[in-house]
Design goal:
single chain; alpha+beta; Helix Hairpins; 4 domains; four-stranded mixed sheet; three-stranded mixed sheet
Length: 377
């Protein structure tokens, strides 16, 4: 027979663990190995018995004190002292996992706790991805689009039964929606296989919906897209989702925006980013150039001696902020373009220009040469 494991090790806690820490550890591990979650798993069943036994001892101050002093050799065992190995959830069974969690004040777990059968339930949400152009997202627009949702069958009113008939109480679960089976220590609760948890069975199904009670319908939604939405933003249309059950409200329609890229602009928050090429002459001598904004052309002054990869910010020419009249900025990133093909005359002029340069004109080059001298001196 395998030796018993230390109770603190079974629960995964230190010997100084408080009552709350013991409770939390038991709850966590009970969810990992409870037989309801692992049917026909003998190993899980054995682990849960071991877990029950450990918690039954350590949660009782007197038993814990004796265990800490004597370990598994408590002389009071078998002589009216209570002993070890009991089941805190009643002799003869594990207890439902929902009951265990409820006993600790944690509530049920995914339908294992007590639920009100046939209570009104809200319908599920419907997700839809709406594609917009860059300009539509920036300026706002009105869009119409088709989508599918579940609606209550108009013939049977959602009951699934043929008009003039009604569903009867399920003979398997007698309306409970769940079936319990017990075998020694093992008690399992599962959804009734006959009615699928509804508690009722339909003998004469509605010919319109085939007994489902709900139908998938194509609908058209109209939405006002606010100015300034960005890729991935979402908007909710309340009550436009799937129909609720048992008189519950409809779910919502969740619209996620997908914004197509622009040929010229990129977006950074509410700022517009524009790569703008300028000539070597414009950069060296300065110039006033026309740069495109989203719906207009604006003037930009290029100072004399502008370097490549310089950014210029034009206030208020970006994207409109959501729910605000204010706009972001247009950030123009200028790149100095070097001509690739020159005539012989142009080459000669550049050589003449380079021969007149003293070095002071190239600040970056002068700084680099000064640092180079310091390194090799």
């Amino acid at each position: 027979m395998a030796a018993k494991r230390d109770y603190y090790e079974v629960l995964g806690v230190e010997k100084t663990a408080t009552a709350d820490e013991l409770k939390s550890a038991f709850r966590r591990r009970a969810k990992e190995c409870h037989p309801d979650l692992h049917p026909d798993d003998k190993e899980a069943e054995a682990r849960f018995k071991e877990l029950n036994e450990a918690y039954e001892v350590l949660s009782d101050p007197d038993k814990r004190a004796r265990y800490d002093q004597f370990g598994f050799n408590d002389p009071t065992q078998g002589m009216g002292g209570g002993g070890y190995g009991g089941n805190p959830f009643g002799a003869g069974g594990f207890g439902d996992l929902g009951d265990i969690l409820n006993a600790f004040g944690f509530g049920g777990m995914g339908g294992m706790g007590q639920t009100v059968r046939n209570a009104p339930r809200r319908g599920s949400d419907v997700a839809y991805q709406l594609t917009l152009t860059f300009e539509e997202a920036a300026d706002g627009c009105e869009q119409k689009f088709p989508y599918y949702r579940e609606e209550q069958c108009e013939k049977c009113g959602g009951t699934g039964a043929k008009p003039g008939t009604q569903a009867s109480t399920c003979p398997t679960c007698r309306g409970a929606g769940q079936v319990r089976t017990s075998a020694g220590y093992f008690t399992s609760v599962r959804t009734c296989p006959t009615c699928g948890g509804a508690g009722k069975v339909i003998t004469d199904k509605c010919p319109n919906c085939g007994g489902g009670g709900y139908l998938r319908r194509n609908r058209t939604a109209t939405i006002r897209v606010p100015a300034g939405v960005d890729n991935g933003d979402m908007k909710r249309m309340s009550g436009a989702g799937n129909a609720g059950r048992n008189g519950g409200p409809n779910g919502d329609l969740l619209i996620q925006f997908r914004v197509k890229p622009h040929k010229l602009f990129k977006r950074d928050g509410y700022d517009l980013l524009l790569d703008f090429p300028i000539s070597f002459t414009q950069a060296a001598l300065g110039a006033e150039v026309d740069v495109p904004a989203l719906h207009e052309t604006v003037k930009l002054k290029i100072p004399e001696g502008t370097q490549s990869d310089t950014d210029f910010r034009i206030k208020g020419k970006g994207i409109q902020r959501l729910n605000s009249p204010l706009k972001g900025d247009l950030i123009v990133h200028v790149r100095v373009e070097i001509p690739r093909r020159l005539s012989e005359r142009q080459r000669e002029l550049l050589r003449q220009f380079d021969g007149t340069v003293t070095g002071k004109e190239y600040e970056g080059r002068k700084s680099f040469l000064d640092k180079l001298k310091d390194v090799f001196q």
